[in-house]
Amino acid sequence: MGGHSLIRKSLLACLVLLVGLAFTRPAVAQNVHSATFFGGALLGSPNGFGAGAGLGISLTRNVSFDPTFLFGRQGGEGVFTLDGSFLYHFHLSDSRLVPYILGGVGLAEYGGHTHGSPIIGAGVAFPVDNGWQIRPEVRIGTHGLSRFTIGLTKTF
To answer: Most buried of 39, 86, 109, 145 (most Cβ within 10 A)?
Structure first.
């Protein structure tokens, strides 16, 4: 996958997220509670690096749906992923930290082919200041969908 193709796919993913938000019903748009930008290691053989973004859509106090996209390099190949995960947030009464587990599915374009994979993982949100959080997270999947990232999240 060439560099121009990767840039076009990244821009397309951003456009899809923005159009999706613009045309969603107001009730769904009101449930968008956060935006996250992240980067980190793509795990597997070979390893790599990726960066991406996603949204957090509240379904209940403890459950959210988080669609994300990522682009990066793994070995000598470009990687582009789109995924959607359900997160279960553990709101601990005596702590500001919010650990969570996740499960979902994703698609990755890697090595000229598109691959699908289930995803499982876990992370924790560390509140910083004024609605900002730092979120380390690990996800397990295949073909660029396994990753360890650190995210910067703004909650609304």
So the answer is: 145
Domain spans of the chain, in order of start: 3-155
Are residues 124 and 133 in contact, defined by beta-carbon separation less than 8 angstroms?
no
Q: Which residues, including other chains, have CB under 8 Å from residue 65's CB and lie 6 or more apart?
A: 56, 57, 59, 84, 85, 86, 87
Per residue in 20-37, pLDDT tens?
A: 555 555 555 568 889 999
Tokens encoding 12: 């397309």
pTM for the full predicted model:
0.80
pLDDT per position as a tens digit, 90-122: 988 888 899 999 999 999 988 788 888 899 999
Fold of 3-155: Porin (2.40.160)
Q: How big is the chain, counted in residues?
A: 156
Written as six digits, the tokens of 26 are: 């107001």
